[in-house]
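Hello,

Our lab assistant flagged a job as stuck in the queue for most of the afternoon. It eventually completed. Since we weren't sure the result was trustworthy after the delay, we are filing this so someone can double-check. Below is the sequence as submitted and the structure that was eventually returned. Let us know if re-running is recommended.
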Amino acid sequence: MKRPLAGRIWPNATAAVLALGFVFPVYWMFATAFKPTRDILSEDPVWFPLHGTFEHFATAVSAPNFWRLAGNSVLVTLLAVGLSLVIGLCGSFAIARMRFKGRKGILLTFMVAQMAPWEVMVISIYLIVRDADLLNSLVPLTFFYMLMVLPFTILTLRGYVAAVPKELEESAMVDGCSRRQAFVRVVLPLLAPGLMATSLFGFITAWNEFPLVLVLNKEPGAGTLPLWLSQFQTQFGNDWGATMAAASLFALPILILFLFLQRKAVGGLTSGAVKG
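-- returned structure --
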Protein backbone atom coordinates (compact mmCIF):
# COMPACT_ATOMS: atom_id res chain seq x y z
CA MET A 1 0.00 0.00 0.00
CA LYS A 2 1.43 3.34 -1.06
CA ARG A 3 1.81 5.87 1.74
CA PRO A 4 0.23 9.37 1.48
CA LEU A 5 2.39 12.15 0.10
CA ALA A 6 2.55 13.90 3.49
CA GLY A 7 3.73 10.67 5.11
CA ARG A 8 6.63 10.51 2.67
CA ILE A 9 7.61 14.19 2.78
CA TRP A 10 8.15 14.80 6.48
CA PRO A 11 10.59 11.92 7.09
CA ASN A 12 12.67 13.00 4.09
CA ALA A 13 12.53 16.65 5.15
CA THR A 14 13.59 15.75 8.68
CA ALA A 15 16.47 13.65 7.36
CA ALA A 16 17.57 16.49 5.08
CA VAL A 17 17.60 19.01 7.95
CA LEU A 18 19.56 16.64 10.19
CA ALA A 19 22.01 15.85 7.39
CA LEU A 20 22.55 19.57 6.80
CA GLY A 21 23.18 20.11 10.51
CA PHE A 22 25.85 17.39 10.53
CA VAL A 23 27.47 18.15 7.18
CA PHE A 24 27.63 21.96 7.36
CA PRO A 25 30.23 22.18 10.20
CA VAL A 26 32.45 19.77 8.29
CA TYR A 27 32.07 21.81 5.09
CA TRP A 28 32.76 25.05 6.96
CA MET A 29 35.92 23.58 8.50
CA PHE A 30 37.33 22.53 5.12
CA ALA A 31 36.17 25.75 3.41
CA THR A 32 37.81 27.92 6.07
CA ALA A 33 41.04 25.95 5.72
CA PHE A 34 41.23 26.94 2.03
CA LYS A 35 40.18 30.60 2.43
CA PRO A 36 42.69 33.45 2.38
CA THR A 37 43.00 35.20 5.73
CA ARG A 38 41.14 38.29 4.45
CA ASP A 39 38.08 36.16 3.64
CA ILE A 40 38.17 34.47 7.05
CA LEU A 41 38.26 37.83 8.87
CA SER A 42 35.73 39.49 6.57
CA GLU A 43 32.55 40.83 8.20
CA ASP A 44 30.51 39.33 5.37
CA PRO A 45 30.85 35.54 5.43
CA VAL A 46 32.39 33.99 2.33
CA TRP A 47 30.37 30.81 1.78
CA PHE A 48 32.36 29.51 -1.19
CA PRO A 49 36.12 30.15 -1.36
CA LEU A 50 36.63 31.11 -5.01
CA HIS A 51 40.34 31.83 -4.55
CA GLY A 52 41.61 28.93 -2.48
CA THR A 53 45.03 28.74 -0.88
CA PHE A 54 47.17 26.00 0.64
CA GLU A 55 49.03 28.46 2.85
CA HIS A 56 47.20 27.38 6.01
CA PHE A 57 47.96 23.71 5.37
CA ALA A 58 51.64 24.56 4.95
CA THR A 59 51.53 26.36 8.29
CA ALA A 60 49.87 23.38 9.94
CA VAL A 61 52.28 20.72 8.69
CA SER A 62 55.28 22.90 9.54
CA ALA A 63 54.16 23.14 13.17
CA PRO A 64 56.59 21.59 15.68
CA ASN A 65 56.38 17.79 15.98
CA PHE A 66 53.52 17.43 13.48
CA TRP A 67 55.01 14.57 11.49
CA ARG A 68 56.28 12.79 14.56
CA LEU A 69 52.91 12.97 16.29
CA ALA A 70 51.16 11.91 13.09
CA GLY A 71 53.42 8.85 12.99
CA ASN A 72 52.64 8.15 16.65
CA SER A 73 48.90 8.33 15.96
CA VAL A 74 49.10 6.00 12.97
CA LEU A 75 51.30 3.49 14.81
CA VAL A 76 49.24 3.40 18.01
CA THR A 77 45.91 3.26 16.16
CA LEU A 78 46.91 0.47 13.78
CA LEU A 79 48.50 -1.62 16.54
CA ALA A 80 45.47 -1.18 18.82
CA VAL A 81 43.00 -2.08 16.07
CA GLY A 82 45.10 -5.03 14.88
CA LEU A 83 45.50 -6.48 18.38
CA SER A 84 41.81 -6.02 19.16
CA LEU A 85 40.84 -7.83 15.93
CA VAL A 86 43.16 -10.79 16.62
CA ILE A 87 42.11 -11.17 20.26
CA GLY A 88 38.47 -10.38 19.50
CA LEU A 89 38.37 -12.96 16.72
CA CYS A 90 39.67 -15.68 19.03
CA GLY A 91 37.39 -14.63 21.88
CA SER A 92 34.27 -14.34 19.73
CA PHE A 93 34.90 -17.77 18.21
CA ALA A 94 35.25 -19.33 21.66
CA ILE A 95 32.09 -17.67 22.96
CA ALA A 96 30.00 -18.47 19.87
CA ARG A 97 31.18 -22.04 19.29
CA MET A 98 32.03 -23.44 22.72
CA ARG A 99 29.86 -24.10 25.74
CA PHE A 100 31.63 -23.65 29.07
CA LYS A 101 30.84 -22.59 32.61
CA GLY A 102 30.72 -18.82 33.08
CA ARG A 103 30.06 -18.05 29.41
CA LYS A 104 27.08 -15.78 30.13
CA GLY A 105 29.01 -14.04 32.87
CA ILE A 106 31.83 -13.27 30.44
CA LEU A 107 29.36 -11.83 27.93
CA LEU A 108 27.83 -9.66 30.65
CA THR A 109 31.29 -8.46 31.63
CA PHE A 110 32.01 -7.40 28.06
CA MET A 111 28.72 -5.51 27.90
CA VAL A 112 29.47 -3.69 31.15
CA ALA A 113 32.99 -2.87 29.95
CA GLN A 114 31.53 -1.48 26.72
CA MET A 115 29.26 0.86 28.70
CA ALA A 116 31.90 1.95 31.23
CA PRO A 117 33.19 5.54 30.74
CA TRP A 118 36.95 5.37 30.44
CA GLU A 119 37.34 8.96 31.55
CA VAL A 120 36.53 8.07 35.18
CA MET A 121 39.44 5.60 35.20
CA VAL A 122 42.07 8.04 33.96
CA ILE A 123 43.50 8.67 37.42
CA SER A 124 43.88 4.99 38.26
CA ILE A 125 45.37 4.30 34.82
CA TYR A 126 47.84 7.13 35.35
CA LEU A 127 48.94 5.67 38.68
CA ILE A 128 49.43 2.22 37.13
CA VAL A 129 51.46 3.60 34.22
CA ARG A 130 53.51 5.86 36.50
CA ASP A 131 54.40 3.01 38.85
CA ALA A 132 55.44 0.93 35.83
CA ASP A 133 57.69 3.80 34.69
CA LEU A 134 55.97 3.95 31.29
CA LEU A 135 54.87 7.57 31.16
CA ASN A 136 55.45 9.24 27.76
CA SER A 137 55.58 5.83 26.11
CA LEU A 138 53.38 4.58 23.29
CA VAL A 139 53.05 1.11 24.84
CA PRO A 140 50.39 2.03 27.46
CA LEU A 141 48.41 3.99 24.87
CA THR A 142 48.36 1.01 22.51
CA PHE A 143 47.35 -1.35 25.30
CA PHE A 144 44.53 0.78 26.69
CA TYR A 145 43.23 1.77 23.24
CA MET A 146 43.02 -1.92 22.43
CA LEU A 147 41.07 -2.53 25.65
CA MET A 148 38.66 0.26 24.75
CA VAL A 149 37.54 -1.34 21.50
CA LEU A 150 37.93 -5.01 22.47
CA PRO A 151 34.46 -5.50 24.09
CA PHE A 152 32.69 -4.07 21.06
CA THR A 153 34.84 -6.18 18.73
CA ILE A 154 34.05 -9.42 20.58
CA LEU A 155 30.32 -8.72 20.89
CA THR A 156 30.00 -7.81 17.21
CA LEU A 157 32.11 -10.66 15.81
CA ARG A 158 30.34 -13.15 18.05
CA GLY A 159 27.15 -12.59 16.06
CA TYR A 160 28.96 -13.22 12.81
CA VAL A 161 30.67 -16.39 14.01
CA ALA A 162 27.37 -17.72 15.34
CA ALA A 163 25.74 -17.07 11.95
CA VAL A 164 28.22 -19.32 10.12
CA PRO A 165 26.86 -22.90 10.09
CA LYS A 166 29.02 -25.40 11.92
CA GLU A 167 28.49 -27.82 9.06
CA LEU A 168 30.82 -25.75 6.87
CA GLU A 169 33.70 -26.27 9.29
CA GLU A 170 32.86 -29.93 9.74
CA SER A 171 32.81 -30.47 5.97
CA ALA A 172 36.20 -28.82 5.65
CA MET A 173 37.64 -31.02 8.40
CA VAL A 174 36.17 -34.12 6.75
CA ASP A 175 38.02 -33.07 3.58
CA GLY A 176 41.30 -33.07 5.49
CA CYS A 177 41.56 -29.60 7.04
CA SER A 178 42.54 -29.14 10.64
CA ARG A 179 40.38 -27.02 12.96
CA ARG A 180 42.65 -24.04 12.40
CA GLN A 181 42.70 -24.48 8.62
CA ALA A 182 38.91 -24.81 8.51
CA PHE A 183 38.57 -21.58 10.45
CA VAL A 184 41.06 -19.67 8.28
CA ARG A 185 39.81 -20.97 4.91
CA VAL A 186 36.07 -21.26 5.53
CA VAL A 187 34.92 -19.10 8.46
CA LEU A 188 37.31 -16.14 8.28
CA PRO A 189 36.31 -15.00 4.73
CA LEU A 190 32.66 -14.92 5.81
CA LEU A 191 33.53 -12.58 8.68
CA ALA A 192 34.90 -9.83 6.40
CA PRO A 193 31.94 -7.39 6.84
CA GLY A 194 32.11 -7.74 10.61
CA LEU A 195 35.88 -7.25 10.60
CA MET A 196 35.49 -4.08 8.53
CA ALA A 197 32.79 -2.69 10.83
CA THR A 198 34.75 -3.35 14.01
CA SER A 199 38.03 -2.10 12.54
CA LEU A 200 36.36 1.16 11.47
CA PHE A 201 34.87 1.65 14.93
CA GLY A 202 38.22 0.82 16.55
CA PHE A 203 40.10 3.19 14.25
CA ILE A 204 37.75 6.09 15.02
CA THR A 205 37.91 5.42 18.77
CA ALA A 206 41.69 5.14 18.95
CA TRP A 207 42.36 7.99 16.50
CA ASN A 208 40.13 10.45 18.39
CA GLU A 209 41.06 9.46 21.97
CA PHE A 210 42.22 12.47 23.99
CA PRO A 211 41.96 12.16 27.82
CA LEU A 212 44.47 9.32 28.17
CA VAL A 213 47.16 10.83 25.98
CA LEU A 214 46.67 14.18 27.73
CA VAL A 215 47.46 12.58 31.10
CA LEU A 216 50.01 9.91 30.15
CA ASN A 217 52.10 11.55 27.41
CA LYS A 218 52.98 15.13 28.23
CA GLU A 219 56.34 15.39 26.48
CA PRO A 220 56.12 17.31 23.17
CA GLY A 221 57.20 14.42 20.96
CA ALA A 222 55.44 11.60 22.83
CA GLY A 223 51.80 12.50 22.18
CA THR A 224 49.38 11.97 19.32
CA LEU A 225 47.49 14.24 16.95
CA PRO A 226 44.49 14.94 19.25
CA LEU A 227 46.90 16.42 21.80
CA TRP A 228 48.67 18.39 19.07
CA LEU A 229 45.35 19.73 17.80
CA SER A 230 44.30 20.87 21.27
CA GLN A 231 47.54 22.87 21.60
CA PHE A 232 47.54 24.22 18.06
CA GLN A 233 45.46 27.30 18.79
CA THR A 234 47.76 28.21 21.66
CA GLN A 235 50.85 27.97 19.44
CA PHE A 236 49.46 30.04 16.58
CA GLY A 237 47.25 32.54 18.41
CA ASN A 238 44.15 33.48 16.42
CA ASP A 239 45.25 32.00 13.11
CA TRP A 240 41.87 30.43 12.35
CA GLY A 241 42.91 29.37 8.87
CA ALA A 242 45.81 27.29 10.19
CA THR A 243 43.61 25.94 12.98
CA MET A 244 40.94 24.78 10.54
CA ALA A 245 43.63 23.31 8.29
CA ALA A 246 45.00 21.35 11.25
CA ALA A 247 41.50 20.11 12.12
CA SER A 248 40.92 19.14 8.47
CA LEU A 249 44.17 17.14 8.36
CA PHE A 250 43.16 15.37 11.56
CA ALA A 251 39.69 14.48 10.25
CA LEU A 252 40.76 13.50 6.74
CA PRO A 253 41.92 9.90 7.44
CA ILE A 254 38.63 9.03 9.14
CA LEU A 255 36.56 10.58 6.35
CA ILE A 256 38.50 8.70 3.67
CA LEU A 257 38.29 5.41 5.55
CA PHE A 258 34.56 5.82 6.17
CA LEU A 259 33.86 6.66 2.52
CA PHE A 260 35.56 3.43 1.45
CA LEU A 261 33.98 1.22 4.12
CA GLN A 262 30.62 2.88 4.85
CA ARG A 263 28.35 0.31 3.15
CA LYS A 264 30.06 -2.76 4.54
CA ALA A 265 30.60 -1.11 7.91
CA VAL A 266 26.95 -0.13 8.40
CA GLY A 267 25.78 -3.53 7.17
CA GLY A 268 28.32 -5.21 9.43
CA LEU A 269 27.16 -3.34 12.53
CA THR A 270 23.52 -4.19 11.80
CA SER A 271 24.14 -7.86 11.04
CA GLY A 272 26.39 -8.35 14.02
CA ALA A 273 23.80 -6.84 16.30
CA VAL A 274 20.96 -9.17 15.32
CA LYS A 275 22.73 -12.49 14.74
CA GLY A 276 23.77 -14.98 17.38
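-- support follow-up --
The delay was a queue issue, not a problem with the job. The result is valid. DSSP finds 13 helices and no strands in the chain. The chain has a mean pLDDT of 82.
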